[in-house]
Design brief:
With 313 residues, the protein is mostly helical. It contains 15 helices and 2 strands. Helix content is 79%, strand content 1%.
């Protein structure tokens, strides 16, 4: 591409697309699709910035979403989702281990895919990878596998939810349990409805805290006594924002604005995630790891959907 001054044409288009995602007519699935298409056609012009900006913006946006959630509803959702969370995490990790052994998949790659599916996608993989001393290829395969399925979920979950006439509560719980990354959980639930968004966000963030015991478990499993655990402190800020929104009515006007900005922030995050996926990352995903990812995702999505439809109104 010919440069335009110090900024190339690719840089300029990328910046314009980021700005475009701020506007409400760009939904979360569309933003992800635009980002992915841009990455496959042009590549990412800001690879280092993209990675850092994605993580930071997601954390800030999640905290902002807390200003749109009432504590009593969050507590109710968390209570409903607690048992689902424990059973689904343990079940997914166990099934992942068995499938990995059966398919003769590299042990560390298999464990990363299982953790990413069980808890919170790329964030879980990033937390567990250094503890089990995974190499870059193993991390790339796991991230690529989880990302592809995560992107598919963002598009098809609202369709499935409408087909089965899921209530806002049912869909929020299902999205939080069965969609990998927090960003796509928020994107899918936000498209389904405001109440679904509140429930999905709360349950997913509570679920994300389980990465801490899973990291400890991984350290023991892979015999790494020098593991360092990163605690996701932004989740605490989310709950503080939620409490402020619930018990300090005077900040209601500010809460509304912050929450609206946070929702657009998540859309931008999904564009950045899509644009951060390289052709190399997609090509690195082998048949067996992807097969494992599909089995785990299908199992957790199907089992949780059936259970929620039968037990939650």
């Amino acid at each position: 591409m010919k440069p335009l001054g110090k900024i190339s044409f690719t840089h300029l288009i990328f910046i314009l697309l980021v700005i475009l995602c701020i506007f409400p007519f760009i939904t979360a699935p569309i933003a992800l699709a635009i980002g992915l298409a841009f990455a496959l056609i042009f590549g990412n012009p800001f690879p280092k910035f993209n990675s850092k900006a994605t993580g930071l913006l997601l954390r800030v946006s999640v905290v902002g979403l807390g200003f749109g959630i009432e504590a009593n509803k969050a507590l109710e959702a968390g209570t409903k989702g607690f048992l689902f969370t424990i059973v689904s995490i343990v079940g997914t990790l166990l099934l992942g281990y068995l499938v990995g052994k059966w398919a003769k998949i590299d042990t560390k790659t298999s464990h990363l895919i299982s953790c990413g599916t069980a808890i919170c996608g790329g964030s879980a993989i990033a937390a567990v990878a250094p503890v089990i001393k995974a190499n870059q290829h193993q991390i790339s395969v796991a991230l690529g596998t989880v990302f592809i399925l995560n992107a598919v979920a963002l598009f098809i979950f609202p369709v499935i939810g409408n087909y089965f006439h899921l209530s806002q509560t049912q869909f929020g719980l299902w999205a939080a349990i069965a969609i990998h990354d927090t960003s796509s959980v928020v994107g899918a639930a936000g498209k389904y409805g405001a109440e679904a968004l509140q429930i999905a966000t709360t349950v997913k963030l509570a679920r994300a805290l389980w990465v801490i015991p899973v990291v400890f478990f991984s350290a023991i499993l892979f015999k790494n006594k020098e593991s360092k655990i990163k605690i996701p402190y932004f989740i605490l800020l989310f709950f503080i924002a939620m409490l402020l929104n619930t018990y300090i009515p005077a900040i209601a006007p500010v809460s509304t604005i912050v929450n609206a900005i946070a929702k657009r922030g998540v859309v931008v995050v999904l564009f950045l995630i899509g644009s951060g996926l390289s052709k190399e990352a997609l090509q690195s995903v082998g048949v067996k790891p992807f097969f494992q990812g599909i089995i785990l995702w299908a199992a957790i999505a199907t089992a949780s959907l059936i259970t929620i439809m039968e037990t939650v109104s």
